[in-house]
Design goal:
- By secondary structure, the protein is mainly beta.
- It has 2 domains: 123 residues, Immunoglobulin-like, CATH 2.60.40; 209 residues, Glucose Permease (Domain IIA) (Distorted Sandwich), CATH 2.70.70.
- The protein has no helices and 24 strands.
- The strands form 5 sheets. Strands 10, 11, 14, 16, 17, 18, 19, 21, 22, 23 and 24 form an 11-stranded mixed beta sheet that branches.
- The protein is globular and about 60 Å long.
- The N terminus is likely disordered.
Length: 364
């Protein structure tokens, strides 16, 4: 039996305004983050963030989000209640290593999937279906009209790992990391937005470790070599921090920086930075100031920091801070899909300049 995966983290139209605590004009949906779309082996993914009014203060419950081609009114996606995106709202959950701002709106992030056989719409809009919990009536609010950034292309990089039977998880999804936003000092920081974590499977694509899950050496990916994804300069190396024991999560952190464990930051030019987190201590192959070529070895995949098991946490950002920066979408220059974690091996197929879907099993 498969073991569970470690999931490491506009104009408005409304039909009813009766019985409300707030005037209708406050019901606003707008797109405030509009990222560059990227391609996977299945979809064009269009990532963005909505800012809305605080509907719960009106006694409303969100039941469904409909996403439409604004010009043709064709339905692009319907998100039902059980699959609704994470909603950031006040009060922000307490995080002991920094203080969050208070916020007066709701924020939710979506990666809209458009099949590769279809064109990305020129304009996209939203329809929220809500229930008034006092009158039991449905209310519809429309808005969030935006133009996808099809004039931009995402950064294309080499893979930070090599070998067979990898899965990259917590990306190409509405879940964590994508929805992570940190509201600090009046800004919406989102360093982890397009990050991935990874695991390596056995040949049957059923398991990612064998033996005692509290031993790092039980995991197939432990101590795998990590590589430079592009030419760049090493600007930071943090080393010497202890590792967790397998899935024990037995390390305690006193500062935000410790959550990354042992990590390396590469300046890859054009204001972009590559982060490699949770590495093995005292095994780095580079030092601060080193100039690297794409494919140069950097260090070893480990289990330090805020880690539930050995894995690489990797992200591209516009600043040299793990969280307080803006994550940027990126694609892999080439990978071969060899299976799916849920269904097993397939006839291999190679993709270029794409990011894989979350549970695709891939080789490099």
């Amino acid at each position: 039996m498969k073991k569970s995966l470690i999931i490491i983290l506009a104009a408005l139209t409304l039909f009813s305004c009766e019985g409300l605590l707030y005037p209708c004009r406050n019901r606003k949906i707008e797109v405030i983050i509009n990222d560059t779309p990227f391609k996977t082996e299945v979809y064009h993914r269009i990532p963005y963030t909505l800012k809305t009014w605080e509907w719960e203060k009106e006694g409303l419950k969100l039941l469904q989000i409909q996403i439409l081609d604004h010009n043709t009114k064709r339905m692009l996606q319907t998100i039902e209640e059980e699959d609704l995106p994470h909603v950031h709202k006040n009060p922000i959950p307490f995080i002991p290593v920094f203080t969050s701002d208070e916020i007066s709106h709701y924020y939710l992030s979506i990666q809209l999937p458009i099949e590769l056989s279809n064109n990305i719409p020129a304009r996209i809009s939203h329809r929220f279906i809500l229930k008034d919990t006092l009158t039991n009536r449905e209310i519809t609010v429309e808005g969030g009209i935006f133009t996808p950034r099809t004039d931009k292309t995402p950064l294309s990089i080499a893979s930070p790992v090599k070998g067979d039977n990898w899965i990259f998880i917590n990306q190409s999804t509405n879940a964590y990391h994508f929805y992570a936003i940190f509201f600090v000092d009046g800004k919406l920081w989102r360093g982890e937005r397009f990050a991935f974590d990874n695991l390596q499977l056995n040949d049957q694509m059923t398991d990612y470790y064998q033996g005692d899950p509290k031993e790092n050496t039980s995991y197939f990916n432990y101590r795998d070599t990590l590589y430079a994804v592009a030419d760049g300069t090493v600007i930071k190396v943090v080393d010497g921090r202890p590792e967790n024991r397998g899935d024990a999560q037995d390390q305690v952190f006193e500062t935000l920086d410790e959550y990354g464990g042992n990590y390396v930051v590469l300046d890859i030019g054009n204001g972009l930075y590559a982060f490699y987190a949770h590495c093995v201590p005292n095994e780095f192959l580079v030092s601060q100031g080193d100039i690297l070529k794409e494919g140069d070895p950097i260090g070893l995949l480990g289990n330090s920091g805020n880690s539930t098991a050995p894995h690489l946490h990797f992200q591209i950002t516009d600043g040299p801070h793990l969280l307080f920066s803006m994550g940027k979408p990126f694609v892999i220059k080439s990978y071969t899909k060899v299976g799916d974690f849920e269904t097993g091996p397939i006839t291999p197929a190679t993709y270029t300049n794409a990011m894989m879907e979350e549970l695709s099993v891939i080789s490099f």
